[in-house]
Amino acid sequence: QVQLVESGGGLVQAGGSLRLSCTASGSIFTFNIMGWYRQAPGKQRELVATSISSGGTNYADSVKGRFTISRDSAKNMVSLQMNSLKPEDTAVYYCHARRYFDYWGQGTQVTVSS
After folding, report:
1. CA 104 to chain centre
2. Contact at 8 Å (CB) between 114 and 11?
3. CA distances, 21 to each of 5, 89, 100 (Å)
4. 95 near 3, Cβ under 8 Å?
5. 13 pairs with which residues across the strands?
6. What's the rounded Cα separation, in Å, for the pair 57 and 97?
7. CB burial string 33-45: b at 16+ within 10 A, e below
8. Which residues, at least 6 apart from 90, have a Cβ–Cβ distance to it below 8 Å?
9. What would the pLDDT profile of 8-60 be if each residue is shown by its tens digit?
10. CA-based nearest residue to 85, from 8, 2, 6
């Protein structure tokens, strides 16, 4: 059974940085896509950044230039370096992986104070 486990969330002041990490266990194959989504209170879950197994990446416009996604496909790990954080980045961040099915982590809270 595939499980995604996130770590690295927390409380940070505006302008600060955090690094999220996600490790997939129980999988013997490489995911086609790994990435991050987030959901703020009262809002829908939205894409933050994704990494495709071929090497391509995709970012939400709101995080371009501030967030960087990196991936170790051999270890089924994906990380998100978040710099210049803003209060509007406050949300629960979810790790996502896809190969035939979608898999989700339990979420990690990121809170950015002004």
Report:
1. 10
2. no
3. 8, 17, 23
4. no
5. 113
6. 14
7. bbbbbbeeeeeee
8. 40, 110, 111, 112
9. 999 999 999 999 999 998 877 888 999 999 999 999 999 999 999 888 999 99
10. 8
